[in-house]
User: Fold DNA-3-methyladenine glycosylase I from Halpernia humi.
Amino acid sequence: MKKIRCNWSEKDDLYRKYHDEEWGKPVYDDATIFEFLLLESFQAGLSWYTILKKRENFKSAFDNYDYKKIAKYQQEKIDDLMTDSGIIRNKLKILATINNAQKFQEVQKEFGTFSKYIWKFVGGKPIINHPKTLQEVPATTEISDLISKDLKKRGFKFLGSTVVYAHMQATGLVNDHLESCFAK
Assistant:
């Protein structure tokens, strides 16, 4: 019998795998949370599918998403990234990623882990929504507005409310699987 999935994920096997194995599943590991922050910030203005197709290239280009290394990137590395056709070559997003890696570590120092910081916005457990259609899934919420505003206050860049809500979905702070979906 065929699995019933959220219909957005039926584009191809890459999307199905992401939907089935990652999307909406709670992530508490700082390294993975940072990976999704990086990917989501590059996704701003683009499709998530574009980013997923380039995910392995991003991983290679950005030192396995190692935020400690990324925080120390200098001009030579920025120049290398700007010539890497495997990623999105947007200088503002590259600079924002370096900045965000630095700010990420500041949050870790303050809260012990970034995970503790981000999960406090949802009371430490996922928000489970019950959408019946994709049209019922919001692009932003009051919580994503609040997180985005707090991140901006802390100096993060390219993490507006829409990007933050997508990050919440990717890391399971919110579960927006459709009621008909097997992964609900």
